[in-house]
Amino acid sequence: MFLHTVFLLSLLLSTSHAAVQDFCVADLKSADGPAGFPCKPAAKVTSDDFLFAGLTETANVTNIINAAVTPAFVGQFPGLNGLGLSAARLDLGPAGVIPLHTHPGANELLLVTQGHILAGFISSSNVVYQKLLTKGELFVFPQGLLHFQIAAYKRKATAFPFFSSANPGLQILDFALFASNFSTPLITQTTFLDPDLVKKLKGVLGGSG
Question: N vs C: which end of the chain shows fewer Cβ within 10 Å?
């Protein structure tokens, strides 16, 4: 028993000084990769790297969708690097809408803090799941699925999405189709939309082709 205790103590002492990397603050001057950003040298890490105050202010929603998303991803918040989470602020004006979009790199958990938001997603079997959310309620969007948020009752709303990745990615379906150089004939062929409608939407969103 004595020898067993001595062995355990020696093992604990030998491992107690082992190097543990508690965090990897992103070096944003370097290129991002599949494993994230390289780590900033520890000597250059400060408390400011673990604080992000960019979600405290209401964003300007004077735009075509009457809404704005303020991200707190690793590119804005270096302390998130490698931690597998991030956040954002969603401001919706009256009847504001975040069009159908996906986050290919993360699940999303939406917390409503003001107003009412109609939120939903489309499953891979083409089933729509949607709920009218109010202050304090949460809704989850599984990774990669098309989803949306709309301010209800013609009133402004605010919500905070949280993601299971420091860099969840974003692709908005309407912008991918009509704000890009995806040619009108190909859009017509792949979506069955009328060519004149495609050209009209391209004119609104600034696409070409």
Answer: N
